[in-house]
Amino acid sequence: MAKLPGKGVIYAPWERTFDRFLSPFEEFIHRQTTSGLLLMGTALLALALANSALAPAYAHLTHLPIGITIGDWSLRMSLHHWVNDGLMALFFFVVGMELKREILVGELADLRQAALPICAAIGGMVVPALIYFAFNPAGAAARGWGIPMATDIAFAVGVLVLLASRVPKALITFLVALAIVDDLGAVLVIAIFYTKALALHWLAAATALVAVLALLNLAGIRKVVPYFLIAVLLWYALLQSGVHATLAGVLGAFSVPARPKYDPGLFSDLIKKMMARFDASNTPGTNIMTNDELRTVVQALTTSALKVQTPLQRLEHLWHMPVAFLVIPIFALINAGIPLQLGSLVDSAGHPVALGVTAGLVLGKFIGITGASALALWLGFAQLPTGTRFAHISAVSLLAGIGFTMSIFIAELGFADHPADLLMAKTGVLAASLLSGTLGFAWLWWLGRPGQTPA
Questions:
Q1: Are residues 129 and 271 in the same domain?
Q2: What domain count does the chain have?
Q3: pTM for this predicted structure
């Protein structure tokens, strides 16, 4: 080991060489736009696979059966279902934690500050659903009404962050708050309207497990493992009950404690005492592996650092990157593979499902968010974000029409037994997301040109 002179930093023989390569990569993956770019890349890869000579292999992969067997018990699903019913539970877990944090201490904690994004989100859910219904008033196609209600937060915020130097910072906060309320609405829609025939005994078991999670929270249990084990059982119970299993992620997230063990003042006092012990036990030039007292103090420091944080913020930080950079791209890779033969594109241009989804996301989000925001401002119980004007809200309402992840997820639920309608719905989602993203980006770029000031 080599010690950096004067700074007390110890380097492994090749560490500084590797840092020169790893640091730019770490900086890249922490950018807010990266998850959106990765999502876009995997979606394009899925489209390429579905429209190439590898299409049969791609279809075989998505339908590959995978099972878990323990004695006489087994759980067997296709890879497609493991991703949509299993991995996406982690996505909803992160969404649930974001919702809880925003409601407790974030943009949704102050009612007056939250009024505009809440009203905008409600308008942006109701109007797209009505527009879809206008195209598909009856029959199996009507089940797709929930598809255009959703906004893809990763894509939409990613596009807005690309314009960070040209838009007010408060506008990004507004879009995040709007998308989080939108996610809550989508979760409720899935729970209430996109369920199969209910198995009441499994639903009773799921209810009991939710009660256990609540008791763990009330009892002050801050260890993550008990919540994880109960949440896994809850996922299985919901899977068997007919309610979509991914809702276990949201219910589990809302049970995660949002209270720390130590308040900042107590933590500060403890750290000062432990650092005094650390300094008294530290002998210059001694390896920490040979100093039991130092190791004991460091372990106590680690424990205290965990106890001053809430389990909610620790888990949200821990799971954000795996979900953004692994779960969502895998979901896109498995679900975005749409055959784009000329015939199907011509069919989709006049198909009511594709038209309803596209019009709902592009026009519905614009009319719903802009109209609800204007009404809330006119009635006086909401206010514009700092430094913004109403034109910014209108432009952001177009970005909200990017409905990729959640819209495709709801399409999979609504049209699980109607593959032709599912294909049209996915085509509509892709077309609407591309159109909404382009129009919203262009409008915000124009609003951010030199000389423009808030009105």
A1: no
A2: 2
A3: 0.76
